[in-house]
């Protein structure tokens, strides 16, 4: 397998402009002869489907939800970054580029990240024109806030619902194209496999989730915008339906999977209450601006928080990081919380939680000021926990939130399979080992509105139409494999539900490949995972045991089957990378003070894994990262 | 906690449906309503019954996928809450809970508690957008928008498209849903060029999809998990009347 990132030559701020000029164009009259398959209708998928249709291509768009408006991009809270410098505080494309590279702990590609920063401003213009109601100042201009510890105010937001508003913007553009007949939308339809013939993506095999019908779609290019794989951990802030199937199926068909061990754990989520828990809820990071994080000084202190005197509390972030205090980056805050819980100082019934206390801020600013800032979050917390955070401190604990790893793509966002493009969280390219707050929405929309429409056109102009039809051998054999797998899942007739396997899988990866990872644990996970996978295929129970109607248990079973295999790739990657970087913390690689320590000499590369068969170790390919613009430094928040 | 569930089971639109009784036992009060259904479903599968099909996804009240009528209330009795955010502690121990799908002609039933809400998408496709091509907009700050108008547009844009307004309306009207979009786009300058055509085509699409008319019951506002007020419907009606004069 050859990894050619296709990074264009020239100064970093001119690469994309020059490259766009070199890209081949499709004659306007010929565009409608091409048909592009877009899987996923979130920020990346929805925006690219709409834009390609506006350009004149035929588009078929697929989503598993009942409407494209429900994709999980909708749940993003905080905001979207753009280097507009409307605040006159010294922001620029270069600064956003630099912050993103540094925040990613120097494990992303300079050229891709610069392009992202360069396009960020256009995204805001586009969304405003669509009627997205961003927050505004009294003068009528767009408001900004500082987010995730950035030193400039570059985050645009729509209260705590920025993802929802941006997605509804993309959905409106997509709806317009559906209404015009330029996009055919296929809802409640799940992609179950990719069809590859002669090294080129030719189409997909999907299942209609209402009738159970399995059928193929041929296209001239296939775009995956299918999100991340946080749900491999079972409990995450992702929607219940989020899964890795589309990306993992492409991986099995020859697409390299890059950096799967880069996962982001968000420090401020509502803790787990018991076995019944089905997902975790995020509380916006902005709470750390006024809340103080603490645990009891002594282990196994079971007093109520109010009964613990000040001198017996440990404000451990303020103690360990006097300069940044409670505002240290996500990965640092999460690991510190785990550490105190490991010392049996965690709070709540499960002992897996820390206090986020607003008492000082309420004393200083008054309850009304806090209510105005965080009212909706306090309300949400109270709804879920039945505790009043104005009176007693919130309990929080870190949870899986975002995955930086994904299918390997070159500068065109094209995977190692020709004609397969991967956008948004599903690819690996822009966030390195750690994503900065308010950057996910930016990347999804940059990929979807601006990058893919240019590079997919170039691909079509170069490679021409796909002549392989759904009647051909390649499609028929893939379809047969999909049908066989469904039959197999239905016919095991064992004792355990897919949900129970998923929960057990989550426990294994959270324990051994979660916030802290070490060689012994990862090796143990690599022993436990195949056993669980074996049991799955022997002891699974799916009801109704038929495929001619809605069957949510079958949907779940198929996804869990892929997550089980995928988990081994993730663990293998974590085992290979013996350095700590960003969201990947290898306990063997830390400084004397317990901070993450990178190993630039040996690990300044993208680990792209090639599938070698189920149960076989994947094959590692390396893309060496070249840093021409920034010099590598160790992050410090002391 | 223990509950008796009366759940609407219906294999497909052609079969007759009926309520079936299930016991939900030993449920922690911290369990959300959908997690309680998860537990019941696990037990159903284990003892060889088909699980209850219901729509859900984000489980944090923003995607708009979930929704059932609980004891006669869309999304349950708690105000401003989606079904996924409703917790079992808000019920009484031992309570009987009736669970039904959204019932409206424009939302045909698929199975059990799942309905087809694609008519909402059809209404948006008819005009719930601003016709702007990617790549052609002016600078984001080129057109200032007064903060109060922008904030009001945001309030209307908070609609999650769940369909509770339709399910709770005696006429199964979609006026609150349509008015939310009309208001959002009608309040901002970018939405003005298509304002009058938009209201006509969206209302026409709504009627064609089989939704009823609004007769000011106000059930929609009471049921809306995002608390969208029904005065937006007045705005919709005003825009509709104006559109007949303007063009």
List the defining traits of the structure above.
heterodimer; A: about 650 residues; alpha+beta; FAD/NAD(P)-binding domain; Flavocytochrome C3, Chain A, domain 1; Methane Monooxygenase Hydroxylase, Chain G, domain 1; 3 domains; 5-stranded antiparallel sheet; 17 helices; about 15% strand; B: about 250 residues; Ubiquitin-like (UB roll); Fumarate Reductase Iron-sulfur Protein, Chain B, domain 2; 5-stranded mixed sheet; about 35% helix
Describe the structure.
The complex is a heterodimer of chains A (638) and B (247). Chain A is of the alpha+beta class. Chain A has 3 domains: 15-74 and 94-129 and 161-264 and 402-463, 3-Layer(bba) Sandwich (FAD/NAD(P)-binding domain); 267-399, Succinate dehydrogenase/fumarate reductase flavoprotein, catalytic domain (Flavocytochrome C3, Chain A, domain 1, Alpha-Beta Complex), CATH 3.90.700.10; 474-602, Methane Monooxygenase Hydroxylase, Chain G, domain 1. Chain A is 37% helix and 14% strand. In chain A, the strands form 5 sheets. A 5-stranded parallel β-sheet of chain A has the order 5-2-1-9-17. The longest helix of chain A has 25 residues, at 552-576. The relative contact order of chain A is 0.16. Chain B is of the alpha+beta class. Chain B has 2 domains: 3-100, Roll (Ubiquitin-like (UB roll)); 117-246, Alpha-helical ferredoxin (Fumarate Reductase Iron-sulfur Protein, Chain B, domain 2, Orthogonal Bundle). Helices cover 35% and strands 11% of the residues of chain B. Chain B contains 8 helices and 7 strands, in the order ββαβββββααααααα. In chain B, strands 2-1-5-3-4 form a 5-stranded mixed β-sheet. In chain B, strands 6-7 form a two-stranded antiparallel sheet. Chain B is elongated, with a radius of gyration of 20 Å. The mean pLDDT of chain B is 97. The chains are: A alpha+beta (638), B alpha+beta (247). At the A-B interface, helix 3, helix 5, helix 6, helix 11 and helix 12 of A face helix 1, helix 2 and helix 3 of B.
């Amino acid at each position: 397998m050859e990894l050619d990132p296709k990074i264009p030559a020239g100064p970093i701020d001119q690469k994309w402009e020059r490259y766009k000029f070199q890209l081949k164009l499709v004659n306007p009259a010929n565009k409608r002869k091409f048909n592009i398959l877009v899987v996923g209708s979130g920020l990346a998928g929805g925006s690219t489907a709409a834009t390609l249709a506006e350009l004149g291509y035929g588009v078929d768009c697929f989503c598993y939800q009942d409407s494209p408006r429900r994709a999980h991009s909708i749940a993003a809270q905080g905001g979207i970054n753009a280097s507009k410098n409307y605040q006159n505080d010294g922001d620029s494309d270069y600064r956003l580029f630099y912050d993103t590279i540094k925040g990613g702990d120097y494990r992303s590609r300079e050229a891709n990240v610069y392009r992202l920063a360069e396009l960020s401003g256009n995204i805001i213009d586009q969304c405003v024109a669509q009627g997205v109601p961003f927050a505004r100042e009294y003068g009528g201009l767009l408001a900004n806030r500082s987010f995730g510890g950035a030193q400039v105010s570059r985050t645009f937001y729509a209260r705590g619902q920025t993802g929802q508003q941006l997605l509804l913007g993309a959905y409106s553009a997509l709806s317009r194209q559906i209404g015009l007949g330029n996009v055919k939308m296929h809802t409640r339809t799940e992609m179950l496999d990719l069809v590859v013939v002669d090294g080129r993506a030719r189409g997909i095999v999907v299942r209609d989730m209402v009738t159970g019908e399995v059928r193929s779609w041929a296209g001239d290019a296939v775009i995956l915008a299918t999100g991340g794989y946080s749900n491999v951990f079972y409990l995450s802030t992702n929607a219940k339906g989020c899964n890795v199937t589309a990306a993992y199926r492409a991986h099995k068909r020859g697409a390299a999977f890059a950096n799967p061990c880069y996962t982001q754990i968000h420090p401020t989520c509502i803790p787990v209450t018991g076995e019944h828990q089905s997902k975790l809820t995020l509380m916006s990071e902005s709470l750390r601006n006024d809340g103080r994080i603490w645990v009891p000084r002594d282990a196994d202190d079971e007093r109520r928080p109010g009964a613990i005197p000040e001198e017996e509390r440990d404000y451990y972030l303020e103690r360990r990081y006097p300069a940044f205090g409670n505002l240290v980056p996500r990965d640092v805050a999460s690991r510190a919380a785990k550490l105190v819980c490991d010392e049996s100082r965690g709070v709540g019934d499960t002992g897996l939680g820390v206090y986020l206390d607003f008492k000082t801020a309420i004393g200083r600013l008054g309850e009304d000021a806090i209510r105005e800032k965080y009212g909706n979050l306090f309300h949400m917390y109270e709804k879920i926990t039945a505790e009043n955070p104005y009176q007693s401190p919130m309990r929080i604990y870190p949870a899986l939130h975002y995955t930086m790893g994904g299918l390997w793509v070159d500068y065109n966002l094209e995977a190692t399979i020709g004609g397969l493009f991967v956008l948004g969280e599903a690819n690996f390219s822009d966030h390195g080992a750690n994503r900065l707050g308010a950057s996910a929405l930016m990347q999804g929309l940059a990929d979807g509105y601006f990058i893919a429409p240019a590079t997919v056109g170039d691909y079509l102009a170069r490679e021409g139409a796909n002549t392989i039809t759904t009647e051909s051998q390649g499609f028929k054999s893939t379809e047969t494999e999909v049908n066989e797998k469904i039959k197999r899942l239905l016919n095991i007739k064992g004792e355990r539900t897919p949900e129970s396997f998923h929960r057990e899988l989550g426990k294994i990866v959270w324990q051994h490949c979660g916030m802290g990872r070490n060689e012994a644990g990862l090796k143990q996970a690599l022993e436990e995972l195949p056993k669980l996978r074996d049991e799955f295929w022997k002891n699974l129970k799916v009801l109704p045991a038929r495929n001619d109607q809605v069957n949510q248990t079958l949907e779940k079973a198929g996804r869990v089957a892929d997550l089980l295999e995928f988990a081994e790739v993730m663990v293998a990657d974590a085992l290979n990378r013996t350095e700590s970087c960003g969201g990947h913390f290898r306990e063997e690689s830390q400084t004397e003070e317990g901070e993450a320590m990178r190993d630039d000499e040996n690990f300044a590369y993208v680990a792209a894994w090639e599938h070698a068969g189920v149960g076989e170790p994947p094959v590692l390919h390396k893309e060496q990262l070249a840093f021409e613009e920034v010099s590598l430094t160790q992050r410090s928040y002391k | 906690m223990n509950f008796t569930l009366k759940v609407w089971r219906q294999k497909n639109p052609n079969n007759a449906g009926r309520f079936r009784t299930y016991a939900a036992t030993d449920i922690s009060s911290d369990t959300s309503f959908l997690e309680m259904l998860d537990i019941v479903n696990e037990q159903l599968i284990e003892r060889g019954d088909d699980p209850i099909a219901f729509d859900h996804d984000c489980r944090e009240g923003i995607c708009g996928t979930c929704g059932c009528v609980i004891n006669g209330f869309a999304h349950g009795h708690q105000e401003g809450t989606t079904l996924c955010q409703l917790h079992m502690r808000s019920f009484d121990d031992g309570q009987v809970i009736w669970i039904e799908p959204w019932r409206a002609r424009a939302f045909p039933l698929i199975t059990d508690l799942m309905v087809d809400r694609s008519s909402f998408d059809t209404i948006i496709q008819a005009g719930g957008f601003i016709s702007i091509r990617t790549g052609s907009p002016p600078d984001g700050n080129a057109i200032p928008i007064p903060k109060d108008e922008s904030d009001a547009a945001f309030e209307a844009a908070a609609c999650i498209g769940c369909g509770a307004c339709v399910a709770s309306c005696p006429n199964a009207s979609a006026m609150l849903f349509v008015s939310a979009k009309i208001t959002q786009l009608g309040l901002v300058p970018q939405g003005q060029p298509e304002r009058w055509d938009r209201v006509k085509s969206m209302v026409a699409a709504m009627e064609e999809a089989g939704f009823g008319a609004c007769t000011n019951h106000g059930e929609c506002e009471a049921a809306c998990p995002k608390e969208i007020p029904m005065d937006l419907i007045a705005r919709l009606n005003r825009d509709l009347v104006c559109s007949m004069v303007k063009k």
